[in-house]
Amino acid sequence: LMYHLALTHSQNMNIPLAKYYAKQANGYFQVHKIFARSIECQIIIGINEVREKLYEKAYFTFKKVIASCNNYNLKESLPIAIHNLAFIESQRGNRESAIQLFQESIELKSESDNSYLISLIYLAEEYILCNELNKAKETLKKVLDAREKYNLSIEHYYSAIILQKELEQSWEELLYILEHEAIPYFEEKGQRL
After folding, report:
1. In terms of C-beta density within 10 A (0-12 exposed, 13-18 middle, 19 or more buried), how is residue 1 classed?
2. 4 — phi, psi (to 5°)?
3. I need a labelling partner for 17 at 20 to 30 A (CA). Which of 1, 48, 88, 163 fits?
């Protein structure tokens, strides 16, 4: 129950309760040696530390998670932890480290998973910030190809196609996509673009 409350509060952006319940659940899972769930609780804690902009604390949380994933051979959680570590490095302005970590995370993910697209989009954004525009375009093409091949999240498609059109400076196409596709889609879903 504590784990599910932590997850629910985290998804609802209620940081204090997410961290509280994740810590409670983590204690239970550690006592009972349920290490995979313990790692998931630590990931919830780390994500919420990032949301609080406690990057140093979150950095060490995810470093510890990565070490535990390697120690217990938890392959499902490892790319998540590496992705979040990359995000922290990005927020700190450590572009090369962020790029290397996003690449490492991508290598561990399946192309047919939405999280693969998310890491690719973040990697493309890092390339843009480093003015490596050809690498950004290549990365965005991978997003669009994987999205089409596996019929993955339309939200990630819009993120990628908008970035791609900005890089190409295809302003008329971008305006059309925004006005006729992306904005109406997100408005219908009650989400922001």
Report:
1. exposed
2. -65, -35
3. 88
pLDDT band at 193 (very low <50, low <70, confident <90, very high): low
User: Are the C-beta atoms of residues 116 and 139 closer than 8 Å to each other?
Assistant: no
Which segments within the chain are labelled E, that is strand?
Answer: none
Residue 123: how many other CB atoms lie within 10 Å: 26
Residues 36 and 74: beta-carbon distance below 8 Å = yes
Rounded CA gap, 38 and 45, in Å? Answer: 11
**What does the pLDDT read at residue 147?**
87
For all residues of the chain together, what is the average pLDDT? 95
Which sign, positive or negative, has the C-alpha torsion 39, 79, 87, 179?
negative
Where are the strands (E) in 18-171, listed by range?
none
Rounded to two decimals, the pTM is: 0.91
- How far, in whole angstroms, is CA 57 from its chain's centroid? 18
| CB burial string 49-66: b at 16+ within 10 A, e below | bbeeeeeeebbebbeebb
Contact 120, 106 (CB under 8 A): yes
CA distances in angstroms from 125 to 63, 95, 117, 128, 177, listed in the order given: 23, 10, 12, 5, 20
